[in-house]
């Protein structure tokens, strides 16, 4: 079950499932992405340009990922056509390059609420989009606004 959930997460980059499954899926998916990311540039460099040592490292990691993920996944594109995607190559090339500078936390879980039929707590699990510094900006903006409003209050009190 978790192999298929992981394959769907890699393929679609966002899935809806129960909260308990999403929490366990996070562990599995992040370990696979970490294996690919630890290769560094070897993960997304064309295979022909690698040295023999790096070819062996990439092949070993590719086999570790392929032992867990199914090799191929099919996705429905707009217009009803299906697209066949190599999931192992997507993890090695796309996801390893996307999360290159990120130390961890490649997934995000968003809780939705109870499912209508059986009241199971539902959640969306998705891959985050980019470097680690993206999520930190919102809190700093609020602090900056508070500081600037205090300065304007002091200036208004001194003037008036």
Task: Describe the model.
The chain is an alpha+beta fold and 160 residues long. The chain has two domains: 2-129, 50s Ribosomal Protein L17, Chain: A, CATH 3.90.1030.10; 131-160. Helix content is 51%, strand content 19%. It contains five helices and five strands. The chain has helices at residues 2-12, 19-37, 52-68, 87-98, 137-159; strands spanning 14-18, 72-76, 82-86, 107-114, 121-127. Helix 1 packs across helix 2 (19-37) and helix 2 crosses helix 4 (87-98). The protein is globular. The chain starts with a helix and ends with a helix. Residues 134-148 have low confidence and may be disordered.
Q: Largest sheet, order of strands side by side?
A: 1-5-4
CATH fold naming of the largest domain: 50s Ribosomal Protein L17, Chain: A
Radius of gyration, whole Å: 22 Å
Uncertain segments are: 134-148
Sheet with most strands: 3 strands, antiparallel
State the gist of this model.
The chain is 51% helix and 19% strand. It is an alpha+beta fold and 160 residues long.
Strand-helix topology:
Blueprint: H1 2-12, E1 14-18, H2 19-37, H3 52-68, E2 72-76, E3 82-86, H4 87-98, E4 107-114, E5 121-127, H5 137-159
Antiparallel strand pairs: 1-5, 2-3, 4-5
Task: Name a few traits of the molecule.
50s Ribosomal Protein L17, Chain: A; single chain; 160 residues; two-stranded antiparallel ribbon; three-stranded antiparallel β-sheet; alpha+beta
């Amino acid at each position: 079950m978790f192999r298929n959930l992981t394959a769907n997460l890699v393929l679609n980059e966002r899935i809806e499932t129960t909260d308990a499954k999403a929490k366990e899926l996070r562990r599995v998916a992040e370990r696979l992405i970490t294996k690919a990311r630890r290769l560094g540039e070897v993960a997304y460099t064309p295979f022909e340009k690698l040295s023999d040592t790096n070819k062996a490292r990439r092949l070993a990691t590719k086999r570790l990922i392929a032992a867990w993920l199914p090799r191929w996944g099919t996705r429905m594109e707009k217009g009803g056509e299906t697209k066949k995607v190599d999931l192992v190559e997507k993890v090695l090339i796309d996801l390893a390059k996307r999360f290159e500078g990120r130390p961890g936390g490649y997934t995000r879980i968003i809780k939705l609420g109870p499912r209508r039929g059986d009241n199971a707590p539902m959640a969306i699990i998705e891959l985050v989009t980019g470097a680690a510094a993206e999520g930190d900006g919102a809190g700093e903006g609020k602090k900056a606004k508070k500081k600037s409003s205090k300065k304007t209050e002091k200036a208004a009190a001194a003037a008036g």
